[in-house]
Write a structure and sequence with these properties.
By secondary structure, this protein is an alpha/beta fold. The structure holds S-adenosyl-L-homocysteine (SAH) and iron/sulfur cluster (SF4). The site of iron/sulfur cluster has 11 residues, from α4.
C-alpha cells in the first residue's frame, strides 16, 4: 500500500494524475492529512465518493506509533516513536512563551560516531522514511492540540476544525534529534518541502533549521534544493581536536567546511550561520581555544551557540563549569561575535541535546567493537 505521508505536493499531484484525478486534489489531500490531521479517506468530505473509494483500495496514511510520552519539570515533552523491529526514535517539544520548537530525528542512530553524543554511541540502524520524519511533526501538533484529551475523540477533532485559523503548537522545527539529517538527504528534503508548504505546515524557511556535523557535498545540495536555516556542529577550532570529537572531520576538514558555509550564506534565509559548540570540561573550553575560534570564524557572518555538555552513562566527558563557559563566551563577544549559551531543557527526562538515545539495533557493530576495545584495555 502506498503511504501518502511519504509524498510532497509534487509527488501527490503525480499520484492524483495517475489515478485520473485533477491536480488540485493533491492540495485537498495535503490539507486533510497535514492540517486537519485526518488519516481516514472516507472522512475527507470534499473528495468525490468514487475517488475516496479508490484511495481506500490503493493507499493509506500510516504514522509511526507512539511508544511513550514524558513531560519534564520545565514543560519539555519527549515522545518515543516506534521504527519497527525493536527500533525507536525520539522527538522533543520545547515550549517557550512565543514559540514552540520541535526537535526532530532523521535516522535510527547515527553512523558518524561523535564521541560526546549518546546517539552516536549507539551505532546506526537505518534512515527514517519521509513518513517517519514528517510524522513527528504531525503527531506533535495533534497531541499538543488535543491537550490532555483523547486526541482521537470526535470532540477534539471538532474543536481543532473550529480553530483552523489558530496558530498550531509547533512554530519551529530543528533537525537536531537523533541522526545526521544530511546523511538522509532524499527523505529529508521531501519532509522539508512539507514543513514549508502552505498546504501542509506552512513554516517559513527561517523557522526550519537543519543541524549538520558537516557533510559538505550534501550541504551544497541542500543550498540548491531547499535552503533552510543552517546550524553547523563545529565543536573545535582546529582539525587535530575536531578529528577526535567529530570523526567525519577527517574526511571534511574545517577549512573546507567553512568554505561550504560561505557558499551557503547567499541562499540562506538568515544572513548568518549558527555554529554549535558543545562545552566539554578540559577538552575544548579553554580561553586559548576561544581565541583560536575567533580567528577561525571572524570573517564569516555567524552566531555561536555554546551547548553545555549533557551527560549520559559512560560518556567519559564532563560539562564545563559555568564560569569557564562565561569566560569562553566573553572572549567571543569581545571579538564582536554574537554568542548565546543554550539553556538546558528537559534533562530530567534525558531529552536535552545529545541525550536522545531511543532504541537502536546497531548494524554497524560499533557497540561490539567498543566492548571489545574495553576488554582489551581492561586486560
Ligand atoms: N547530527 C546533527 C544533528 C543532531 S545533534 C549534528 O550533529 O549537528 C544536535 C546538536 O547536539 C549537535 O550540535 C550535537 O553536536 C549536539 N550534541 C550531541 N551530543 C551532545 C551532548 N551530549 N551534549 C550537548 N550537545 C550535544
Ligand atoms: Fe550523529 Fe550529530 Fe550525534 Fe555526531 S552529534 S553522532 S552527527 S547525531
Amino acid at each position: 500500500m502506498i503511504n501518502l505521508l511519504d509524498f510532497n505536493k509534487a509527488e501527490l499531484i503525480r499520484f492524483c494524475e495517475d489515478m485520473g484525478e485533477k491536480p488540485y486534489r493533491a492540495r485537498q489531500l495535503l490539507r486533510w492529512i497535514h492540517q486537519s490531521s485526518r488519516t481516514e479517506f472516507m472522512e475527507m468530505s470534499d473528495l468525490a465518493k468514487g475517488f475516496r473509494q479508490k484511495l481506500v483500495e490503493s493507499a493509506v496514511v500510516r504514522l509511526p506509533e507512539i511508544v511513550s510520552d514524558h513531560t519534564a519539570g520545565d514543560g519539555t515533552r519527549k515522545w518515543l516513536l516506534s521504527a519497527g523491529a525493536a527500533n525507536a526514535v525520539e522527538m522533543v517539544y520545547i515550549p517557550e512563551p512565543n514559540r514552540g520548537t520541535l526537535c526532530v530525528s532523521s535516522q535510527v542512530g547515527c553512523a558518524l560516531a561523535c564521541s560526546f553524543c549518546s546517539t552516536g554511541r549507539q551505532g546506526f540502524n537505518r534512515n527514517l522514511s519521509v513518513a517517519e520524519i514528517i510524522g513527528q511533526l504531525w503527531w506533535a501538533n495533534r497531541l499538543l492540540e488535543a491537550g490532555e484529551d483523547d486526541p482521537f475523540s470526535p470532540d477534539t477533532v471538532r474543536v481543532r476544525a473550529d480553530k483552523s485559523e489558530a496558530r498550531r503548537p509547533v512554530t519551529n522545527v530543528v533537525m537536531m534529534g537523533m541522526g545526521e539529517p544530511l546523511a538522509n538527504f532524499d527523505n529529508l528534503v521531501i519532509a522539508l518541502d512539507l514543513m514549508l508548504s502552505d498546504d501542509a505546515y506552512g513554516l517559513s524557511r527561517r523557522r526550519v533549521t537543519v543541524s549538520t556535523s558537516g557533510l559538505i557535498p550534501a550541504l551544497d545540495r541542500l543550498r540548491e534544493r531547499c535552503p533552510v536555516a543552517l546550524a553547523v556542529s563545529l565543536h573545535a577550532p582546529n582539525d587535530a581536536l575536531r578529528d577526535v570529537l567529530v570523526p567525519i572531520n577527517k574526511k571534511y576538514p574545517i577549512k573546507d567546511l567553512l568554505a561550504a558555509c560561505e557558499r551557503y550564506l547567499p541562499a540562506a534565509p538568515r544572513d548568518f550561520i549558527t555554529f554549535e559548540y558543545v562545552m566539554l570540561k578540559g577538552v575544548n573550553d579553554s580561553v586559548a581555544l576561544a581565541r583560536e575560534l575567533v580567528q577561525l570564524v571572524k570573517n564569516i557572518p555567524c552566531k555561536l551557540n555554546l551547548i553545555p555538555f549533557n551527560g549520559f552513562v559512560g560518556s567519559g566527558y564532563e560539562r564545563s563549569d559555568p564560569e569557564t563557559i562565561s569566560h569562553f563566551r566573553d572572549v567571543l563577544m569581545q571579538a564582536g561575535i554574537v554568542t548565546t549559551v543554550r539553556k538546558t531543557r528537559g534533562d530530567d527526562i534525558a531529552a536535552a541535546c545529545g541525550q536522545l538515545a531511543g532504541q537502536v539495533r546497531d548494524k554497524t557493530r560499533r557497540t561490539n567493537r567498543r566492548e571489545a576495545d574495553q576488554i582489551t584495555v581492561a586486560r
